[in-house]
Amino acid sequence: MLTTEHINIVKSTIPLLESGGTAITEHFYKRLFTYNPELKDIFNMSNQETGRQKTALFEAILAYAKNIDNLAVLKHAVERITQKHTSFYIQPEHYQVVGLHLIETLRKLLPEQFTQQVEDAWTSAYGVLATIFINREEELYSERAASLGGWRGKRAFCLVDKIVESEFVTSFIFEPMDQQSTMTHQAGQFIGIELTPKDSKHVEIRQYSLSTTSNGKSYRISVKRELGEKNGLMSNHLHDNLKIGDLVDLHAPAGDFILIDDTAPVVLISAGVGITPMQAMLEELAKANAAQPVHYLHACENSAQHSFEQRTHDLCNKNNWQYHTWYNNGEAIKPNTSQGLINFKQVNLPKDDGNFYLCGPVEFMKFAKEELIKLGVSDSRIHYEVFGPHSTL
Q1: Among the listed residues 102, 222, 236, 111, the one whose alpha carbon sits nearest the alpha carbon of residue 164
Q2: Catalytic residue list contains 112
Q3: Domain ranges, ordered by start, for the chain
Q4: Fewer Cβ atoms within 10 A, N terminus or C terminus of the chain?
Q5: Are 299 and 364 in contact (CB under 8 A)?
Q6: Residue 207 in contact with residue 190, Cβ under 8 Å?
Q7: What's the pLDDT at 278?
Q8: CATH for 266-385?
Q9: Res 227: pLDDT
Q10: What superfamily would CATH give domain 4-146?
């Protein structure tokens, strides 16, 4: 039970957490994987190397400590995390392991300050948070298992087609091995794919946005080949080694980045491979014969890296929707296309009543959000999806 005293003690440790920074989560993960190496088959080890996961966890711990007396503030963050957890098939016993290593990390790094009272407070606080996650994740697992075409855990799928969309992006279409129907997903959601890449020591689980609407028969993801030594383990394996007829395990569609069900204008803003959930949203709006105005804005390096270009053009023209593209390398020889960085002043946006959806590199989304707010768009009308560990814009 979390008491008022526990809450006060946890909040009193905030300066200690802030001074410790990501050294806390770095030690936590080192300890976790030393004592429980089997969890390397769940965690994205590439994100461990880049440091993104350590930063995300530290920010989450700090946010919880700061808002422990007002958890409603964390409602959206909790929902986003639980949605992601279900695509890893996180179970209650995982929380017990994580809790143990978190407490032992605090004990190790704060030997003088980590008194019995502080330990009791943090143990209770973690227990409350773990229960919130466990209960919500169980709800999601049960709902999906009970849905038409739904399932719990992983399900075997076969790759039935690969389609090159642009220089670095290829679409992968999967159908279930049991030849039964697939669960309906909402545009903007992702799916978890689980397999062991060539030369990898571990099972790898990644989440990729579904790039088209539900059809009850298959799922489509569109994956960018990531370059660099610390990136692209899964994406390169999919591009280079996964062949038509190969099997993968998929976890049911998840995610809370979805279209708001109202009649307000819709503005879809993306950069690079962030176009994938936007494409699903555009397809969904077309399928529903959406009556509200739609604006589709995309930024990428050049036309060779512009995925779904013709399909976007056809959908927008057919429905009389506004669209504009920015090519960073200076190429701008097509209608509705500009050179340079995305510039919202070049287009007429529904600043007062539109819902704005962002997806792309974190720095791009930070820039886009800042520019939209300068134009007068309310923060509450800006929604976004981060690929990989969560980051606050």
Answers
A1: 222
A2: no
A3: 4-146, 154-254, 266-385
A4: N
A5: yes
A6: yes
A7: 97
A8: 3.40.50.80
A9: 81
A10: Globins (1.10.490.10)
